[in-house]
Amino acid sequence: MRTKIRVLSAVTAIPLALSACGPSGEVAAADGTKSIGFISQAPRNDGGFTQFGLAGVNAAIEADKNLKLSSIVDNAANSQEQIQGLESLAAKNQIVVADGASFNKSVAVVAPKYPKVRFILVAADLDAYAENVTSVSAAVGYNAIVVGAVASAHSRTKKLGMIAGLQVPASGAWYYGMAQGAALENPNTKVVQTYTGDYNDVGKAKQAAEAMIASGVDSILSDLDSGSGGVYQAVGGSASPADVYDVFALHCDSSPHIIGSGVVSWSDILKNAVADAAADKLPAGAISYGLGTGALRFEFCPGKGTAEEKALVERITKDITDGKIVADKGVLLPKPAYHFEQR
Question: Which range is the signal sequence, renumbered to this chain (predicted)?
Fold first, then answer.
């Protein structure tokens, strides 16, 4: 169960001599330090999307002595909590990272009030251009195409499933990409999808996975955070053999049934974005990271994947980066009408 929003300082004190907040939200530091605020819709230690994103912010800080993480707000589940959290962070930081697709509306409300603050919106775009907002996303649909092809080749029943938390475009991209990749490998492979309403609810994820397995699905892509534990439980307790494919990172030790992962290095993406923002080199608009950046890739767990399946990964990945495979509708997030950069 999610708890109420809370703001925790990452340092015990911020001396007044070092920082001062103006009415616009601009933070001036006498020693040149730039402070960062981080807000997420999930717990900071969710074992997935949020935890990896926060790790990227910390990596940028470790590489630059003039950066510091001043505050973290997590479990900001609804719009009121998100707006309050963003305003709290913007009032005392120069860079604010809004980690999650559900923040696009709240960032649009808060950012104009703090024109001197650079907002980094993760995994979603704004409806309209804002001079102090940069949205960063991963073209996860490309990764999903590779996952779908591998899962189809490995499947015995030729029926695959995708389980996610919220029915947002970023999660939908995993489904549509998986369906496209499966069809490339075998036009007769079917892909179904289920949304539990929560990326961290283990019980709901287990129920969804059990229902899929009962319907004949033998390969499940888990677009979940800690909720993936429910998928592992369902597969591990099933009399019918089933496999799991993760997203974001490899969790091979979590279940012997995990074949591999459509790795999305949010750590690398956030490290890059924060470093550019600190150097005033991050352009306003939208940036999407693809397979060519190395931030996205498919990886097998040790000992998993046949030689043919590994060759399939290389071929599909190359065909995507070379432009031979064009994403179907829904595989990629819609490009915004303003400045957009595909990396």
Answer: 1-20
Are 183 and 115 members of one domain? no
Judged by phi (left if over 0) then psi (alpha if -120 to 50, else beta), residue 282 lies in beta
Domain carrying residue 241: 140-263+296-332
Model confidence pLDDT, tens digit, residues 5-56: 333 433 322 332 334 444 444 544 656 899 999 999 999 988 778 999 999 9
- CATH number of the domain encompassing residue 148: 3.40.50.2300
Q: Which of 23, 32, 48 is nearest to 222 (CA)?
A: 48
Threshold 0.85, pTM exceeds: no
Do 232 and 209 touch, CB atoms closer than 8 A? no
Whether the CB-CB separation of 128 and 102 falls below 8 Å is answered with no
User: d(Cα 147, Cα 177) in Å, to the nearest integer?
Assistant: 8
**Same domain as 317, residue 199:** yes
Q: What angle do CA 297, 48, 4 make, to 5 degrees?
A: 155
Same domain (yes/no): 258, 117: no
